[in-house]
Write a structure and sequence with these properties.
mainly alpha; Arc Repressor Mutant, subunit A; Tetracycline Repressor, domain 2; about 0% strand; transcription cis-regulatory region binding; Transcriptional regulator, TetR family; transcription; transcription regulation
């Protein structure tokens, strides 16, 4: 087995017998990503895990890029559904945006390797229509939460607010996961008080246009 082949467990082997091979390959990929990270994934290795010939796997995904793209699309769409549900369960512009942030942080906390996989742009087909649609759905979720047509008529302001929000949230999560929050618990870096303080300030800045009156 080469270094970039996933390490199989007894439960992995022969898990596919009939039915949806595409689904079986994506599920097997999820298991590998969780255990070893995205770099351990290969189509040939996944084919062995589910008990089919590599040629069968290649009929569904032409290469690893197509596989990672499909995996990323599913993850983004799942995050959008979760974030939208959390947002719609509360009222108030600031609280609704905070709900989206918490959904994003929760995703990274519960599935750190999957979160890291989403950030590997070089492994994704950025022209894939499904991937573009998933990204658009995420952008739309933020746009419709942060921007009120009656108050934010300037499209450049809207776009800047959206970009600032996602850049800040993404950067915050990445810094914590990469160990740059000095007082954070290594086993739960996203639970650090600094993270909570930072996203509360972010909510005030981008959803209400203020921040000076936030009290910690």
């Amino acid at each position: 087995m080469s270094d970039n082949e996933p390490k199989h467990t007894d439960e992995d082997r022969g898990s596919y017998h009939h039915g949806d091979l595409r689904r079986a390959l994506l599920d097997a990929m999820g298991a590998v990503v969780t255990r070893e990270g995205i770099d351990a994934v290969s189509l040939r290795g996944l084919a062995r895990m589910v008990g089919v010939a590599p040629s069968a796997a290649f009929r569904h995904f032409r290469d690893k890029r197509a596989l990672v793209t499909a995996y990323s699309c599913e993850a983004i769409n799942e995050l959008v559904v979760t974030a939208r549900a959390k947002r719609d369960a509360v009222e108030g512009d600031a609280v609704r945006f905070e709900a989206i942030i918490l959904a994003f942080i929760g995703f990274a906390r519960e599935q750190p390797q999957r979160f890291r996989a989403l950030n590997r742009r070089e492994l994704v087909d950025i022209e894939d229509l499904d991937w573009l649609q998933a990204g658009l759905a995420m952008d739309q979720l933020v746009f419709e939460t942060l921007n009120r047509p009656d108050a934010d008529a300037n499209p450049r302001l809207q776009a800047a607010r959206n970009l600032l929000a996602w850049a800040a949230v993404h950067g915050l999560v990445t810094l914590a996961m990469d160990g740059w929050i000095s007082d954070a618990d290594p086993d739960d870096p996203l639970g650090a008080p600094e993270i909570s303080d930072a996203y509360r300030l972010l909510v005030a800045l981008v959803s209400q246009g203020r921040g000076a009156d936030v009290r910690f």
